[in-house]
Amino acid sequence: MGPAMEYRRFGKTNEMLSVITLGGMRFKHGWDAPRDRLPKDALDNCIDSTRRAFECGINHLETAYGYMKSEHLFGAALKEIGRPREEYRVMTKGAPMTGEETRALVELQLAALGLDHVDFYGWHGINNEERLQAAVMPGGPVETLHRLREEGLIRHVGFSTHAPLSIILRAIDTGLFSFVNLHYYYFFQRNLAAVKRAGEKDLGVFIISPNEKGGLLWNPSDKVRSLCEPLSAIEFNGRFCLSHPEVTTLSMGMHAPRHFKQNLAILGGGENFSATDWPVQERMDAVWPGISNRCTLCDECLPCPEEINIPEVLRFRNLLNGFDMKAYGRYRYNMLEGKGHWFPGTFASKCTECGDCLPRCPEHLDIPRLLKETHRQLFSLPTFIGNRLSDFKSAVLEFVRKIISR
Ligand code: SF4
Ligand code: SF4
To answer: Under a CB-based contact definition with an 8 Å cutoff, are residues 141 and 96 in contact?
Structure first.
């Protein structure tokens, strides 16, 4: 029997959520079209995972229309498990672009989930200026979501984001949202100001993907592993996130019962950053000043005419040089140019050495040289091709599904 689950208030929604959320993005076969055909092994896995989550005290399930089968899997699993509805909370997300689309999409999602309401609905991916404007325009999707809230189909409206900090702050400041799903982890602290602003405005804060996008922490580099001892990298990072009182819950990426043990270990049984945890953070923090030509992620060098996401590329360089995080750097770097607004930017090899960015860098970094060096270290043709093939397969399956459903 491990430490008891902790519950925190999800900002102004006033809902008490478990600090660990069962996220539904990565269930077995979850990304295979069609969305409503559920292979038996996928459904069994979702039922077992959801049941295990409830047994552990997890009371928050998170999904999205964009996660293909996920809403249908959760819907079937919840029906099978039969847990009383008032004992758990459900978040789903979608990115309808107009008011009319919004109502139709939410009705479709509720049908897939087998629910008459969801507790939290997040507009999915306020990732840039254009999407922020589309979401919040008068008569647009967010306004319609609030109408659906008044009608009882949704209890609270929020948003998820992969945007630069300035856009996240503006979205929070619209006053239209009760919660925000964002990236913030030990290895990416750029959004601290957004976490703080959300806290000041009493928005609930949900951390996206702390283990995967937060550093592939189930398979850390030897250096990270040894710096984190006696904690695991997952434990350290989870407790680091929860040491911020503004943070309510973390979506840990568990998608099979075998993943629970290592993730539940983040529960400290009391204060989440204990006397044992602080020396780990001190050891980790001591690495940063020694990173040569360290980028501080200030964004001052942007925009680049070649659309290179300079701070993100140099963040991978920081992590490679400071923490030997080559697997993580390769995994993320080779996603560039393939994920649209979810992960914008071109490869660093596109740098023409025009020099525009140089006078804007307060650290006086030789940005073109550092970019080229990072590209040499992280670009991997097999990974690049593998990513494109899997995106292509998903696009083809979705296209076929649309044709069949016509
Ligand atoms: S020097 Fe390279 S990175 Fe800097 S602005 Fe020009 S193309 Fe972009
Ligand atoms: S201006 Fe310099 S320190 Fe700031 S993000 Fe760009 S490269 Fe990094």
So the answer is: yes
Nearest to 19 by CA among 252, 183, 227, 362: 252
Cα angle, residue 180 at apex, residues 177 and 184 outer, rounded to 5°? 155
d(CA 162, CA 167): 9
One domain for residues 80 and 227:
yes
pLDDT for 24-53, tens place per residue?
A: 887 777 667 778 787 888 889 999 999 999
Q: What is the pLDDT of residues 280-331, one digit of tens each?
A: 999 999 999 999 999 999 999 999 999 999 999 999 999 999 999 999 999 9
Q: Which of 165, 288, 294, 296 is the best mutation target for the ligand 2 pocket, counting ligand atoms within 8 Å of the beta carbon and taking the most?
A: 296
Looking at 245, 274, 303, the residue that finishes a domain is 274
276 close to ligand 1 (CB < 6 Angstrom): no
Domain membership flag for residue 22:
yes
> Which of left, alpha, beta for 105 (phi over 0: left; psi -120 to 50: alpha)?
alpha
270 & 306 share domain? no
SS3 220: coil
What's the number of domains the chain is made of? 2
Which CATH number covers residue 22? 3.20.20.100
Same domain, yes or no, for 151 and 243?
Answer: yes
Q: What is the Å distance from ligand 1's center to 330 Cα?
A: 21
- The three-class DSSP label of residue 204 is strand
DSSP state of 188: B
pTM of the predicted structure, to 2 decimals: 0.91
Q: Answer yes or no: do 209 and 119 share one domain.
A: yes
